[in-house]
Amino acid sequence: MAYFVQLVIFGLLAGGVYVAVGVGFGLVWGVLNIVNLAHGALVITGGYLTWQLFTAFGLDPFLTLPVDAVALFVLGYALQRGVINRIIRAPLLFTFLLTFGVNLVIVNILLMIFGSDSRSVNPAYSGQGLEFGSIVIPYVRLASLAAAILLAAGLAFVLNRTRIGLAIQAISSDRDAAQLVGIDLRHAYAVTYGLGAACAGVAGGLIALIQAVTPTAGEPYTLLAFVVVILGGLGRVSATVVGGLAFGLVEQFAQSIPGSGSVFANAIAFGLMVLVLVTRPQGLMGRLR
Amino acid sequence: MALRKLALLAVAAVSAFACGGTTSNAPTTGATITLGAPLGLTGSLTKESQLTQQGYDLWKDWINAQGGIVVNNVKHPVVIKYYDDTSNANQSAVLMQKLITEDKAQFLLGPYGSAATATDAIVAETNQIPMVEANGAAQAIFNLGYKYTFGVLSPANKYLQGVIDMAATLTPKPTTIAMLSADDAFSLEVANAINTYAPTQGMNVVLFKKYKNGATNLSAEVLAAKTANADIVLNSGHLQEAIAINKAAKEQKLNAKIFAYSVGPSTPDFIAALGADANYVYDGSQWTPQVKYTPAFYLTESQYVAAYKAKYPTFGDPDYHVAESTAACLALQRAMENAGSLDPTKVRNALAALDVTVFFGQIKFDSRGINTFKPMVVEQIQNGVHHTVFPTTVADAKPQYPTPSWDQR
């Protein structure tokens, strides 16, 4: 029983990070219709930023998260305004090509600046946690889950309660009508991508706490974000939260299959994604559009 | 008249002899030898590939400072042509072919990793050009009957055997093993070898768990190891996974007497990433700066470390990836010298017959082309520093055993 409870806890805690990775990706995909292949690179940029602030200034990694968010917002805004806006109405393939190119550029810039060394953020409380009998809840992962939920809530607030958020939602519903009522498309697009990048940056800061960061370490997270968003459903932040936590749980239980079964953890998780696509194409929580 | 002819003949003979004498004493400089190597200078294997390149370049600088490789009394300077295979094994093979056809590489140095070495071995074989490699330890590469691929490193099945040998000498003797292994060919070979070897030393593998190569969330695996309550926790995988397992072990208070990881702890990154949590961790290593061999040529261990630090001052001590890569170059050099020719087949035959000891240890290939003659050593991280702890003949410290529980560190 304790083993089962422990697995559920680890699954939810891992899911927290997946939520953080997924929300920004889902936003950009839902509003801009861009499957952002540079998402993982943005995530890992946030990871490096946290590492740099932690090692150079001794800043607590969780306090670096707002810095990651702001820095990545600026980077994302500039990227969208200067580069990606140019092909926003082009066929999907062009956005694939462009964001893949951006991904390569970012990864190689990181490689030039930081080299290929594995960097890791190890605060004093790393590895410590709450203990209930044989069940442990590591502080770092618990705080990561909390940060991810806060991030999602913050994003939902911006989208639903602020003027620019409503403008973004309007664009998501009908781009041309939104333009007709006077919404500055280029600005709103850039803000959307900036918000997506900011979420990626926060996710990266959390990831730097639980694994070693290298320039290419972000690539698996692009795929992961894709799965999480499909699982939960496109178009709502809360759906991505459900998708991320569900993915964390499924992965954890698949990995705990005795013997060599855990090799199929990914296959099981992706199998679930296919199942969701077949039976509920809008995702577990998504709305049909 | 006849006398004059005789005198001229005598002068000609003397001068010919003198010329011949000069060439035998001081070799002339011949054509440059081009070596080729695809490396993962970008992508997931960047770090290890960079270390490989450092090992190759360290030798290249040294040999060119000597004037080149002396083959049949002619000194041939060396250039090494690199391409970036983006850590992709298939791309590595494409570039290996390009090195042969377009860049006219006469001999090949291996890429990084068993996967790329396996694909490149096919290219070496089809073109009948010797490839000496230092970073592909999977025996699967050498079980295919290739004649042109030679590996200077100890094969995968030996990677963690040293840890078992060492454990057998410790008191209280550990008897149970939890093995967490990545699912790639190399890691599985390392892990499976322990499955069969441990019982011969009176130990049992009580948990054998495979995970997806490259996984970063390994808490379920570590939880399984904790539940198994084994004395020894082994990981056969890669740097990232070793870091993830060590972090999860601390979080979950997994207390084992021995933590040993096949790849990872020997790199400086492991200590940098984990700080004090890296202490007490063991690894099987191809080479450490502390080993003592009697080299037949090139540098001694201490000279090698000094040369490395002079060229790469920010990197600390050379790790075994660097040393084995240099050793591959030394094997190729000695084979060319022994063959007295740059003919690929003759050099290939000289490699097959090679038996020489350098700073890296004995280099000798079995009939498959892999170096089964050099032993592995066991390292332990003690107070943030790598120490060689086994075999005792080359050790510079005693194992700190058993590993204290996480609460007591």
Could you describe the 3D structure shown?
The complex is a heterodimer of chains A (289) and B (409). Chain A contains eleven helices and two strands; from the N terminus they run ααααββααααααα. Chain A is an all-alpha fold and 289 residues long. Chain A has a single domain, classed as ABC transporter involved in vitamin B12 uptake, BtuC (Orthogonal Bundle), CATH 1.10.3470. Chain A has a two-stranded antiparallel sheet. In chain A, α1 crosses α9 and α10 crosses α11. The longest helix of chain A has 31 residues, at 2-32. Chain A is globular and about 60 Å long. The relative contact order of chain A is 0.21. Chain B is of the alpha/beta class and 409 residues long. Chain B folds into two domains: 28-155 and 290-364, Rossmann fold (3-Layer(aba) Sandwich); 158-287 and 377-408, Rossmann fold, CATH 3.40.50. Chain B is built from twelve helices and 17 strands. In chain B, the strands form four sheets. Chain B has a seven-stranded mixed β-sheet, with helices on both faces. In chain B, α3 runs parallel beside α4 (114-127). Chain B is globular and about 65 Å long. Chain B starts with a helix and ends in a 19-residue tail after the last strand. Residues 13-23 of chain B have low confidence and may be disordered. The interface between A and B is large, with 43 and 42 residues.
